[in-house]
Specification:
There is one protein chain. Helix content is about 55%, strand content about 10%. The chain is an alpha/beta fold. It folds into two domains: about 10-160, Rossmann fold (3-Layer(aba) Sandwich); about 170-285, no CATH class. It has a five-stranded parallel sheet, with helices on both faces. Helix 8 (about 180-185) crosses helix 9. About 30% of the residues are buried. Bound molecules: zinc ion. Zinc ion binds near residues 50, 51, 58, 64 and 65.
C-alpha cells in the first residue's frame, strides 16, 4: 500500500489487520472521487493474497505477487454504462463461492458500488450474509447513501479523506498551479482537469492570435477575461501561450517572432500596474499591427 500517496492512517490500520491475520470479509471504502481509493484497494488485495507478506506488506517476490494481475483469485467489478447489473453480481457470487486456486484467499473489488441497483445490491447481500471464510469483498464508493442499510451494516467502513495540496502535487509530480489546487479541493482528477483546461485555453488563444484577425482575437480575450476560473491567473495563461509560440518558433521559420515580444510586453505591463484590460488591449493592437 506504500505506493499510494496519502491515507497514512488507513495504511497502518489495514496493514495491522493483515499482520494479525484479522482480515475482514467485507470492507466499504468511502470518500470523494479520485483520491486513490481504488489503487489503495488493489494494493490491499495484493497484500492479502501475498504468500509471504511482511508487516502487512506484500513481498513482490512470491508466485501470487508475481502473477497478481492475472490471478483468478482477484477481480475488479466495474460499472458498465453507469450501472452494475444484477447479472454481474450474480456472476461474481457464483465465482466467489469456488475455492481459491492460486492463493489462500480470494479478493473481489466492486468499484463505484453505488451504481448497483437495488436488485444487484440484494444479490450481493446474500454473499455478505454468509461469506466464504477465504473471501474478502471491497466495495468502493463516493456516495454511500445509495447503498442499502442492510449492506452497510455488514461491511467495515474505511473513510478516505481528501488529499492535501502537497499530496496532489506529489502525485502530479509538481506541475500544479495554486488555483488548480483550490479548484481541485482534494481530488487529483479535478486538478488534472484544471491544468488541461488551462492548456486548451492557451492553445486556442495561440491559434487565434496567429490569424491576426482583430475580431476573433478580441472575442477570445473577452472569453479569457470573463471566465471566473482564470480571474487571478491571466498571466499564467499568457505564459503558456508564449511557451506555445516558442515551440512554434523552432518548427516554423515563417513564424512572426514579434508575437513573443508582444506577449512579453503584455506580461510586464500586468506585473507593473496590474491593469489586465489595458495590457490585453495593447496586446491585441500590437498583434494586429494597428
Ligand atoms: Zn508476495
Amino acid at each position: 500500500m506504500d505506493i499510494v500517496i496519502g491515507h497514512e492512517e488507513n495504511k497502518e490500520k489495514l496493514k495491522k489487520m493483515i499482520e494479525s491475520n484479522q482480515i475482514g470479509h467485507a470492507y466499504l471504502f468511502v470518500g470523494k472521487k479520485s483520491i486513490g481509493k481504488k489503487l489503495f484497494a488493489v494494493e490491499f488485495a495484493k497484500s492479502i493474497l501475498c504468500d509471504s507478506s511482511v508487516n502487512g506488506k506484500y513481498c513482490d517476490k512470491c508466485e501470487s505477487c508475481l502473477t497478481f494481475e492475472h490471478n483468478s483469485d482477484f477481480k475488479i467489478i466495474a460499472p458498465e454504462k453507469d450501472a452494475i447489473k444484477v447479472d454481474t453480481i450474480r456472476k461474481m457470487t457464483g465465482e466467489i463461492i469456488l475455492m481459491p486456486t492460486k492463493s489462500k484467499r480470494k479478493v473481489f473489488i466492486i468499484d463505484d458500488a453505488e451504481l448497483m441497483n437495488e436488485q444487484a445490491q440484494n444479490a450481493l447481500l446474500k454473499i455478505l450474509e454468509e461469506p466464504p471464510k477465504y473471501a474478502t469483498i471491497i466495495l468502493i464508493t463516493s456516495n454511500k447513501d445509495k447503498l442499502l442499510n442492510t449492506i452497510k451494516s455488514r461491511v467495515m467502513e474505511i473513510q478516505f479523506n481528501a488529499l492535501s495540496n502537497d499530496e496532489i502535487k506529489k502525485i502530479l509530480a509538481g506541475d500544479v498551479h495554486e488555483e488548480a489546487l483550490k479548484f481541485a479541493n482534494g481530488s487529483v482528477s479535478k486538478a488534472l482537469d484544471f491544468n488541461n483546461d488551462m492548456f486548451l485555453m492557451a492553445n486556442s488563444i495561440a491559434t487565434v492570435m496567429k490569424t491576426k484577425n482583430f475580431l476573433d482575437i478580441n472575442r477570445k480575450m473577452e472569453e479569457l477575461k470573463n471566465d471566473k476560473k482564470y480571474k487571478s491567473m491571466i498571466s499564467d495563461v499568457l505564459e503558456k501561450v508564449m511557451f506555445i509560440f516558442y515551440s512554434e518558433l523552432k518548427e516554423n521559420v515563417e513564424f512572426d517572432v514579434n508575437m513573443i515580444s508582444y506577449i512579453e510586453e503584455c506580461l510586464q505591463s500586468i506585473k507593473r500596474n496590474g491593469n489586465v484590460d489595458l495590457a490585453l488591449d495593447m496586446l491585441l493592437l500590437n498583434v494586429c499591427n494597428l
